[in-house]
Amino acid sequence: MFRNIMITTVAAAAVSLAGASAQAQSTVKIGALLPMTGQQQSTGVQIAAAIRLFMAQNGDTVAGRKVDVVIKDDGAVPDNSKRLAQELIVNDKVNFLVGFGVTPAALAVAPLSTEAKIPQIVMAAGTSIITERSPYIVRTSFTLPQSTVIMAEWALKNGIKKVVSMVSDYAPGIDSEGSFKDTFAKGGGQILESIRVPLANPDFAPFLQRARDAKPDAVFVFVPSGQGGTFVKQFIERGLDKAGIKIIGPGDVTDDDLLNGMGDQVIGTVTAHMYSAAHPSAMNKAYVAAFKKANPNLRPNFMSVGGYDGMHLIYEALKKTGGKTDGDQLIAAMKGMAWESPRGPISIDPETRDIIQNIYMRKVEKVDGELYNVEFETFPNVKDPGKAKK
Ligand code: PHB
Fold this sequence. Notes:
This protein has 12 helices and 15 strands. The chain is an alpha/beta fold. Mean pLDDT is 93; it is low at 1-24.
């Protein structure tokens, strides 16, 4: 109901966006578009919690200006993201648009951030192309190729020769499939089948049966955050683990948010990713403890750090501009910025405005009665390989 009300008011307000952000305001306004309901809800919940935690720890004033965050639920539906972004720009006169739980939401808003000259901070979505769609986009999440290329190299070195690829049938899935396949095939690996599974309400079972019949060493999987539990359950129900088939992929499938519910059969699963709740730095230990204290029963996952670091980026950029909210000045301030995240050291590539970060190889293990992705190898300062190719 809440969303329907938003949509009708936005339609009437869709006038010229140019200059809307330039007005002098005492409060810095951040509009967050997040899936707080629907299939991607866990992403919205994690990022909203991380934004709140950052502000609780760092205050709601920066460079002499009060910071106000408005969260709007787009349900991960790109038409909603676009309408809500228009309303946030025109009516609320926001200085930043942040969030974006899925790639289509980030892409739908890109032309608006360009027109209004408002920084668009992508805290979740992971398709390589996103940062190329607006000069005002800066990403604090990840790209899928950052993890999949490293995953492919690891598989080649660890006796995995034949793989069935299984990805969600939309942009980040296609990105994952392509980047994994390129590296794996070049290194002599064989892709037996490339299967694409519908994004909405997926039933993996028939596809898993097909995968099992192909007798691969491993299934390479990309599912978006929130779907890993269903995938693993059906993988086990279909007996693929007992047939000796491994799960490999970017770490979205063994998401820290859901991992504890997947059961001990998932122990030993190897993935490549940018964040684990078990990352052994002092900063991450403090982050996990503070996050859990503020959100009982919720363990921070890789989406949460995209939100936390996105807020850091905004605060530091405002410090650099002396509290000015001119979009071009803010983007210039963000380029090349480097800091320590709970995931490890990160920076913003000044050329592409995309994140540069460590990618870790991890294996699911039981530690103190809980399942964790335990890191065992680090690939430092990985740029998006998806862009290097173009
Ligand atoms: C995306 O839509 O870009 C996306 C969503 C969830 C993920 C990864 C990528 O876990």
